[in-house]
Specification:
It comes from Natronospirillum operosum. One of its GO terms (biological process) is phosphorelay signal transduction system. Strands 2-1-3-4-5 form a 5-stranded parallel beta sheet, sandwiched between helices. The radius of gyration is 13 Å and the shape is globular. The longest helix is centred in the middle third of the chain and has 11 residues. It has a single domain, classed as 3-Layer(aba) Sandwich (Rossmann fold). With 121 residues, the protein is an alpha/beta fold. It contains 5 helices and 5 strands; from the N terminus they run βαβαβαβαβα. Helices cover 40% and strands 21% of the residues.
């Protein structure tokens, strides 16, 4: 049974790059969201066993998504993918429940390592 993966980023290019960075051997069903509100709706609809989440987006940013996931105890594993790699951003994302933090531009090897490390692959 495929893993449902949700890629949430306001950039179409970043969404495509993230999808291409997923390991070929990983059986996935990919959905996309362009902002946090769309992501939360998709999670609630069961489309996000794993969520790859950008932090800087319009409508609702990644931090707000993480807060909602935690508050509502939504069933998803979150890996943040962001260009904002300041220690404060990484610490805040992790404190809000992000499992991992991967720097943009996305590196397929780092994605594979994170998925393997956490038993998602």
């Amino acid at each position: 049974m495929p893993t449902s993966v949700l890629i949430c980023d306001d950039s179409s290019l970043a969404r495509k790059q993230m999808a291409r960075a997923l390991p070929r051997q990983w059986e996935v069903d990919i959905s996309y969201a362009t902002n946090g509100e769309e992501a939360l709706a998709a999670i609630k609809a069961g489309q996000a066993d794993v969520l790859f989440l950008d932090l800087t987006m319009p409508v609702m940013d990644g931090y707000e998504v993480l807060e909602h996931i935690r508050r509502e105890d939504l069933p998803t594993v979150v890996i943040v993918v962001s260009g904002d790699v300041q220690p404060e951003a990484v610490a805040r994302a992790r404190s809000l429940g992000a499992l991992e933090f991967i720097k943009k531009p996305i590196d397929p090897d780092k994605t594979l390592a994170a998925l393997t490390q956490y038993g998602l692959l």
